[in-house]
Amino acid sequence: MTPIFATDINGLLLALAVLLAGGLLCLLAGPRARLAHLLGASTAALASLIGLTAALPALSVAGSQQVALSWPAAGLNLALTLDPLAAFFLLPIFLLTFCGALYAIDYLHFPARSWRAGLHWFFYNTLGASMAVVVLAANGLVFMLAWELMSLSSFFLVTHDYQEEKVRQAGWLYLVATHIGAAFLFFVFFEASRVAGSLDFASFAALRALPVDATLLLFFAALIGFGAKAGLFPLHVWLPDAHPAAPSHVSAIMSGVMIKTALYGLLRLLTWLPPIPAWAGIAVALLGITGALFGIAMAATQTDIKRSLAYSTVENIGLIFLGLGLWLFCQATGHEQAAVLALVGALLHIWNHSLFKGLLFLGAGSVVHATGKRELSALGGLLRRMPLTGSLLLFGAAAISALPPLNGFISEWLLYLSLFNAGQDAAGGAAFFFMLLAILLALTGGLVVLVMTRLLGVALQGEPRSAAAAEAHESSAVLIAAMSIPAALCLLVGVMPQLPLQGISGPLLTLLAPNHAPTGSPLLPPFGPAWSLSLLTGLAALVAIVAIRTWRRRNASRLATWGCGYLKPSARMAYTAGSYSQFAQDTVFCSCVTPTGASTRGPALFPPPAQFGQERLDPALTRWFLPLFGKLAERAYAFRRLQAGQLSIYVLYIFIATILLLGWGIMAP
Amino acid sequence: MNTPPNLILLFVILFNFFILGTSRLNTCIRSVALQGALLSLLPLFLHTLTFHTYLLAVGAFVLKGLLMPWLLFRAIRQVKIRREVEPRIGYIPTLLLGALTTAGAFIFGDRLPLLPEHLHSLFIPAALSTLAAGFLMLITRRKAIAQVLGYLMFENGIFIFGTLLAETMPFLVEMGVLLDMLVAIFVMGIVMHHINREFSTLNTEQLSLLRE
Amino acid sequence: MLLYAVIFLPFAAAALAAVLPSDRLRPWLIPITALLHFALVLGITATAAPAVNPNSLLGLDALGRFILFVVSLLYAACSFYALGYFRYHADWENRIFITALLAFLGAMTIAAASRHLGLLWVAVEATTLVSAPMIYYNRNRFSIEATWKYLLLCSVGIALAMLGILFVAYAGLHGGGEQELLLDQMLASASLYSKPWLRAGFVFLLVGFGTKMGLAPLHTWKPDAYGEAPGLVGGLLAGGLTSVAFLAILRAVQIMIAAGEQVLVRQMLLALGVLSLIFAAVFVIRQRDIKRMLAYSSVEHMGILVIGVAVGGLATYGAMFHVLNNALTKGVLFMTAGNIHRHYGSKRMCETQGALSVLPYSASLFLAGFLAITGSPPFAPFMSEFTILRGMFAGGHLVLGALFIGLLVVIFIGMGGTVLPVTMGPHLEETEDEASDYRETLLTIGSPLFLLAAVLCLGIYLPEPLKIMFSEAAKLVEVTP
Amino acid sequence: MIIRLLLHFLLLAGLSPLLIGVITRTKAIIAGRQGAPLWQPYRDLRRLFGKDMVLSSTTTWVFRAGPVVGIAVPLIAALLIPFGAVGAPLSFSGDLVLFVYLFGLARFFTVLAALDTGSSFEGMGAAREATFSCLAEPTLFVAFIVLARISGSFTLDTMFKTLLANNLQTVYGVSLVLTAICLFIILLAENSRIPFDDPNTHLELTMIHEVMVLDHSGPDFGLILYGAAMKLMVMGTLVVNFIMPPSTGDLFVDAAFYTAALLALAVGIGLVESGMARLRLLKVPQLLIGTSLLSFFALVLLLR
Question: What pTM was computed for the model?
Fold first, then answer.
């Protein structure tokens, strides 16, 4: 925290050390839950503060700092590198780790004597440290080591309440998905090392000599591997289950930053690979926009507030991949300006999403904490009962809906701008492609507003729909504080976009350097004074109007909502989440994302009490992956006959093996 | 071609077929014992008559020709079972397979270069075909005892080959082998006893509780 | 001199156990012997390797020292568990079991120290025979069936190995003239051997010792034997005996390499190794029996070992490292699985769910062991498998590497699908008749805990002496194309 | 600069209620009635601002913020577009996105304000509003893209200056006409005019916008009406700009031209409204999708 560590990787080492030491201490604290709780929270918070102060300066410092500890066990060095790109990802990691730790102080409650607290904080600190190491890793071993640790620790955090069946299933799904992804990553790094001759990232510059097919092999293997972690459609299937299952501060971290480490990996790989063919860029962009539309459509039909937010994460990841794909395509086709705009947009959206999604998950967590319910149909009227939390949630929703003057708008604005730019100087089909993307992006934007108003309107407004919601209490000051940090940053980025854009210029150059000569800041888009001026006028107008109204404020009489003559409108008459999205389902969405319902109303003289149930399963999971894996397992099962328990058959195996090998041995030259 | 060893080996091969073909358990045991006894003569014809050779021959004779059958008969007496080998596949197919493997043994034997003194001898084919016959017994017979017999023929085959090298190989090895076989048969006998106690049969097809 | 003591000690203890009247005192022989043995082994490995006398039947080269160290370490760690085990089975007659257990150690020691193929063969066969009664310890129809299969299959295999030795000897007779089966002499003159005989001999040796080691498709006895044996025995078989069998195969490989037959050796080992991985992957999916699952995992790791040797270079070193990791981790898994089995009186997944809530220590150790054996950091198997993979890709085996990674993931998923419900699943209220009288004691937890700690430390920090041991062992079987 | 700013504000604030008046008057005349005087809307506003207000006990600050944002947004948005030849006071490259998302902001708050009452009527209206604008927004974007493509710039100011006038003869003519039509339809949809909605009726379950403001009263309601009028004017300006003559140089002459054109547009809207009946609710999405296809067609014509 002192300037000694500023601008220096030692600060990060210190932060890592504090994190790991804190984790071990929590474990040593054993069943003394209170002690472990405080230890864990304090160490995590302290470490992330140190990390922030150490990473912030590195954002703008060109070049990289190395540190390498020799590691005989591996035969490789435990080498870390800090460069602007790494710093770019370190900032949100440490920020959210800090907020999460702060938040958990009041959010988590442990029985006085249990190991749970120690374990939770051990894995929490490990997660923080491993995320940082993933970003800092300087060779394949360190990267994969940290990557696996990250997956495992997050798995154990997700399964914090492992007694619940759903939580276990969610955790298992997550573990499987992340391991399949990791397999592809292992392949990528080993294949790269085979070409480059060593696992050191420094030597991966040799990859630039790769022929195009080998490049594509690496690129798409990495896309699958990292996409599975990032939640890229259709590999997102673990995400909507894992986030509701996890404790909210964990969901905030996983959704806010952990999945972003996958994006880091992809970007880092792109700095080594030779330019990617244009069509690959198109593929990525299309995947991205498809994922965005799919995610937001699914989010509109969910009734679990955290599940809905998880799908909105899928949407945002889709937008980021759209930006990346656009960047690759424009780079390959020579639209310099558009390429830069797309990349900047994607990078900024990475930051933005970690801010407002962290805020939203923390806010949702407070709602769950106050009411004990995640179902929208059991919430309502919370804005009156917990005004601060509610307002922060509303703030985050506005930010994620890309409404000016908040941060979400800036990044989407950049994406639009790059699309328009490309569409402007492209011709014919290509231009048409960009326009199409712009239109789909607009559609997504509209749907986001729909989803967010739905979430807030049903969860926070109107009358409480359950007793639990009715006696909800405002969350404690700690929770509010933890939430207001990202909120403040959302506003800052939105009102003064120059700041983050300058911050991004460092990593931007790192990413662009391989492919064209480093031009200076003109790469950055033109945010004239006009921007801030228009906002200022807007704000002035608002102030003026409010002033007028306060001046003309009469004693407003408070009565019940006018309900068409009903004297006591009850919450059961209120518009539900299902009906809110019903209209969109019927008119806008394709049938594959609409929930599947089952009603037991039969025509009868004396109709029995009828029920109606809906389930909102992920089509990618239920239609593609589960059948696929089921079939594979069936195939594997067919081989069980080989082990039928008959001794003589086993002897026969030995006999056959001997004969075959003998034949081979004799025939072999 | 018609040196004593070759004649013995010829008999041995014929015994293989006989064992594969017969249905009586006792006959099987006796013929396996006889086979072993025949084999125990081989060293005497093959090598210079040293103490080592004698010891090997006598040891083999006692173990293969006397001890083993005694053990097996005792096992049969303990477990009162039908004196019949119940083959998994019929006798004719078994014999055909036996013929096939014997042919294969001859062909394979030709591909291996022999020392001049061993040329035109039946050692390699005989050893391999006995081995294969043992395998066939193990694969096709149901009764545990029959499988033990298969294992014995197996060992006989190895012994045939071993005698070629009786001088090369140190004393220790054959003795080790023989003693070891002895122990193996002992243990197998004990296990068979327990099997019979648990399953009240020696039909190993019953022993398929452990399966996927 | 120390060597003879090391060999003599277990047999003496076995004899003592055989005559000792008291069932109470007898178990104490195990940890005492094991610790003495381990101390002696440490004494041997600590001192610089004396030049092995080429004419002596016994002697320890780098490979032997390494395997001996692994076996002795595992045995020492498990011995305390054995104490707890017999305390639990206080009323059972344990004379035969303990005698066999001690003789088992002796046989493995001889096998590791033998410089003579015949002696090696005898020792390995002896391990088969003495381990039979240990597998049959539970005395029910399942265990007898398992014992029968184990005994017969391994005897067949070992007999084939004998034939292989004879073939190799004949090859020597054909090429190098009169000579004994002493390893050093054979290595010296292997280049003169007649190739067809040598190859045929190698095939028989591979099949024979491969059966013992449990390479697919010769592994068929493994799930039954490991599944029915007590957890302790399972650990010793999967960790110790397989390593010894691996050593036996490596001896054959040494000879083949000396004869300049690397290519064939490498191909055959690769074939068997990949086949083992595939079998393990296929059979581990939806495996409902935790011990059988561990058995297939053992098949998998045998496959990894031979693949590592076959690939050569860095991978061989990784394979040596992996021998140790596999042995230790298997010890953890089998012992904790034994605890779970004993508590629930079942090893079916459906009946043993939610162990974390009743056996917190065993279950979490089991879980950690699962993560370790499937190559998750920061445990040592991750390191060794990573090293093997590095060697693989450095050797340009692109497809093989991809296949390897893919199969490892399948196996992870397969095992996880069983292990996670068993540990984290919903805890079923066990009925009265279920054997829930078992409580975790320091003895039954300490051994696996120690082993896991060792695995963890090795993953983070590898002591220099061990590293040297691995690399020297690897040098002996280095397949240089 | 400052003059331009003031001019914009004045035109917007002063003119927007008049448009409503003109529309209603036109409809009345077509219907054969004499109708309310043109300045009736001004009176209504004054009356509303003078009133007390009734707040639902369910509501929170969001309920009151809705109208404020609802009127602030058109004010800001108006600064980004030229009023005829009167240039936009604020403009920067890419402000078209800001323009669209500003209305998103307004929608966000009006919808939340509606939901804040917890009444199912408002809820229903909010759902429809949100859904329809999802369909309307892309059309707006396509229209803007077409104009940007033609004018080669991303600032609304240059995009909307004197377009149809000089391009009608060129190859762009067809696309421009199509775009103008699309914008007109969007204008009707966004301002909930017939055939999408009927601003005169209340409490009909088929309504979109009006039903959302049921619980607003007094000054709040006045703000809403005023904001709606401004929104109408802003959107109308987009359409009007297609037919505006090039600048005469004199700011006020241009303003006069613009005013005239705007009033003409209002009359046009009135004619359309009295000419056709409101669509069934389920037909509305089809019409909107049809519009976006139309605009898309314009784009295709442009790019071919």
Answer: 0.94
